[in-house]
Amino acid sequence: MFSNDAINEKNINTSKLLHSAWQNLTTSVILLNQDLIVIYANESAKELFALGEKRFIGQEFHALFSHHTIDISRIYSHTLEQGIDCHQHRADVVFVDSRHAKIALSSRLITNDNQALALIEFRRLDEEIKHDQASYQMHQHIAARTLIRGLAHEIKNPLGGIRGAAQLLQYETYQSERDECTNLIIEQTDRLTELVDRLLGPNQLLKKTECNIHQTLESVVKLAMLENYNHIKLVKDYDPSIPDITIDEGKMQQVILNIIRNAQQAIHNNEANNIESGSIRIKTRIRHQMRAHNKSMKNALQIQISDNGPGIDQDIIETIFFPMVTNKEGGSGLGLSIAQTLIDQHNGYIDCESWSGHTEFNIYLPLGL
Fold it and tell me: Per-residue confidence at 121, pLDDT binned at 50, 70, 90?
């Protein structure tokens, strides 16, 4: 027989275990009382709604959104009053911080001390769609890089022969006109060789060190401010609690600077936009239980770079990380392809969302918390 103390201790341990399990779910879960007021939210729900414990608990359910198409009456009449599970396969919502999302939700009756509670589960449909697209894009990106490697080998071999022949001609003649021609051949073959090397992407080993990500970002901001875009605001929204992270700082600066410069140029060149109101926001956060691109991160650093420029052409948004894809006049279309390769080398991932008047890039890197 167990003593009362042993039983109580076992119950306490079970309660702690259940709480830990709820908090580590990737599904967003909240509990509503009979007045449709939030009495519990797990970590995933706090991230979904971008609300902390104090702002979440005690909040009326409808006040969690600035707009929504959720049938709240069914949650009350079916779940809380009749104990019937309810499912809404799609709802469009706008959170209080103006983020738009497509979600699915279900409600189920549970009781606690004879009190009826509604357990609400949320799924981000747009996240699932985005992850499926990202997985497809990654496969396509790998296929494209395989093709490029094969083409690069075939191109560089004859280029080497052409350059060698031009050098031989250069040594064998003293005529200035011929020298001019051979110099031109050498310059152009070198230019093509450099282009092929850029298509192949970075091949150096990463030099990882422990870095304060905000110091890294500040260095990038200083470089970006050297450009002649003083009319564009650079807004910083940093989470000071983020610990140091092990990265190749130089490579990470290259990735972030490329994204910021693209945003600066897009805002500056957008004739329809009032450039006086142009802004770029750099935000850092800690995210939990991240899954995408066949990668899983228990804890992740999120670096979000968003702007209010014209947006990216929807015809290329799904291939934006492919080599040679760009809607920027005079652009090579290699910057974002290289960025994806560098982030992948850090065991992270990068994605992009864009619509008219808004573009955002999100970089996720594993955090060893």
Answer: very high
pLDDT(101) > 90? no
Report the number of distinct structural domains present in the chain. Answer: 3
Examine the domain organization and report whether 253 and 285 are in the same domain: yes
| Confidence (pLDDT) at 77 | 86
Q: How far apart are CA 188 and CA 165, in angstroms?
A: 13
The conformational region for residue 294 under phi > 0 = left, psi -120 to 50 = alpha, else beta, is left
Supply the CATH number for residue 234's domain. 3.30.565.10
More confident: 84 or 128: 84
Of the three residues 150, 173, 200, the one that is the final residue of a domain is: 200
Burial track 8-33 (b if 16+ CB lie within 10 A, e otherwise): eeeeeeeeeeeeeebeeeeebbbbbb
Compute the average pLDDT of residues 318-340: 70
State the average pLDDT over residues 3-16: 50
Residue 119 sits in the same domain as residue 137: no
User: Which domain covers residue 315, as residue numbers?
Assistant: 209-366
Same domain, 164 and 279: no
Percent of all residues in the chain with a pLDDT value above 90, rounded to a whole number: 30
- The verdict on 116 and 214 lying in the same domain is no
Task: Assess whether 215 and 331 both reside in one domain.
Answer: yes
Nearest-angstrom CA–CA distance, 307 and 282: 9
Of 124, 151, 182, the last residue of a domain is 124
| 227 confidence band (pLDDT: 50, 70, 90) | confident
Buried residues in 64-79 as b, exposed as e (16+ CB within 10 A): bbeebebeeeebbebb
